[in-house]
Amino acid sequence: MLIGYLRNCPGHEGPAAQRRALAEAGCEQIVEEWPGVEQCDEQPALHDLLARLQAGDVVVVPRLDSLGRSLPKVVQHVQSLTEAGIGLRSLAEAFDAPPRSQPAEPIAVVGQHNSQKAGSRRPGAGGRPPRLSPAQQLDVVAKVLSGRHTAAAMAKHYLVSPATISRLLAARLADAAAPAPGGPAGKDAVASDRIVGVLPPSALDERLAIVGTSGSGKTYAAKGLIERVMATGGRVCVVDPLGVWWGLARGVDSAAPPFPVAVFGGAHADVPLDPGMGAALGRLVGAQPMACVVDVSDFGSAAARRAFMTAFTGALYQANTGPLHLVLDEADLWAPQRTQPDGLELLGRIEEIVRRGRVRGFVPWLITQRPAVLHKDVLSQAGILVSMKLTSSQDRAAVGRWIEGQADRTEGRRILGALPQLRRGEGWVWAPGEGVLARVAFPRILTLDSSQTPRQEARRGAPGLFAPVDAPALGRALAGLAAEGSEEPSHR
After folding, report:
1. Residue 111 in domain
2. How does pLDDT run across 424-447, given as a tens digit for each residue?
């Protein structure tokens, strides 16, 4: 059955014209919102309608914003409809989502409106260049969907039309529902105005651990979260022992890079590194308001990497005073459960940062494919756990120990049993302090996916431009600090 719904909104046609349009669209019934609710979020007639709809019905509205005065309210009602197997049709946008036998992802439905109306414009995709940078786009999405600002206010702030903001929000919400490459969203995946659908923005400032087997998508997921931090102007330092993070400084398909990221060391360095520069780089990163990747993949030996990291973390701990997300990829290399004699000092420094670094601004994020070999005293400090696919019983047992100290054991047993079946790009997000336990599919990233394996090169996309970083100035600063002396700052 086609059932029309209308409300008298500023900027809409009058009720008579809306009723006529709905009748011409074939609506057998037309429900009109109660008088006096045009300027508030209460929609009693719509709630009554939702309560009596049956699967297979189709709700027809003159415009999508008939469903609510804000995008979050529209999303809420679309979710109610799609979860109940009810179709939605909007006349103004020529948008038609038929009833589905399986519940649809609500944000994806809203995103279809954008693609049908105007298409999803992306940098390098042709047509008029985007009016907002990727960082500005993330700022708009975060502030509007959190309710801190209206879409109209953000349009005024960035000197763009309200239509530009509306198209952006629909497109980005659709992206939030899309899984990472190779990992289609399952029915348990969640998409909403929150980070990966479930976490409040404040969760980005918590100690975080991301675990998963090789190829599970953990680095890709971490990059998406780091992009959110950088979009708000946050300082980031990624320690990369594999040479897979340099894409954070590059755009995709000839597009300009979304964020200015300096790459120290590795095959794609802005500034070359050698193993003796650890203390100098630690002082530089601690003093500079920047985002950077520290690539130690070319250092040749595990001992050389440990020596560099010992000097780097000691100097960084002393020099840093402001908020800094320190991302330790392959964290078990720096804080292993079984530590070599030449790694004991480094383990102590990592523990210092993870346990007591908050007073100096550190927000440590740990990434590992082997939680069983990451030191238990380090892993236990994470307040939020993201677990991608894990097949080893030892690694799942390590996650189980984290659960015993942080979360509900009964739920933990259920989740541990499901970890081997997760697809690439899927993960369980567990934030006990936020009351969050959800299976999610991580969204696409904005920057170049440089962590894909060589056999997937054809699907990676053409690399874009490097980030606008003053590499010569950084090189001179690093050389100057290195020349000041080889004496390491005391760790304590």
Report:
1. no
2. 888 999 888 888 888 888 888 888
Q: Rounded distance, CA 66 to CA 3, Å?
A: 14
For 64-75, the pLDDT digits (tens) are: 777 776 666 776
Percent of the chain at pLDDT > 70 equals 73
Residue 136, domain extent: 116-177
Is pTM beyond 0.90? Reply is no
For tokens 């330790």, name the residue: 328
β-partners of residue 199 are 195
Residue 101, Cβ neighbours under 10 Å: how many? 7
For the chain, how many residues are written? 492
Report how far residue 234's alpha carbon sits from residue 446's, in angstroms, rounded to the nearest whole number: 16
Same domain, 411 and 311: yes
Q: Is residue 265 part of a domain?
A: yes
**Residue 99 phi, psi dihedral angles, 5° rounding:** -60, 150
SS3 state at 470 = coil
At 36, the amino acid letter reads: G
Q: Does 360 fall in a domain?
A: yes
Q: How many CA atoms lie within 13 A of 339 on its CB side?
A: 21
Angle at 293 between CA 287 and CA 298, to 5 degrees: 120
> Where do the H-state alpha helices sit in 91-241?
106-117, 134-145, 151-157, 162-177, 218-231
pLDDT band at 470 (very low <50, low <70, confident <90, very high): confident
Same domain, 294 and 374: yes
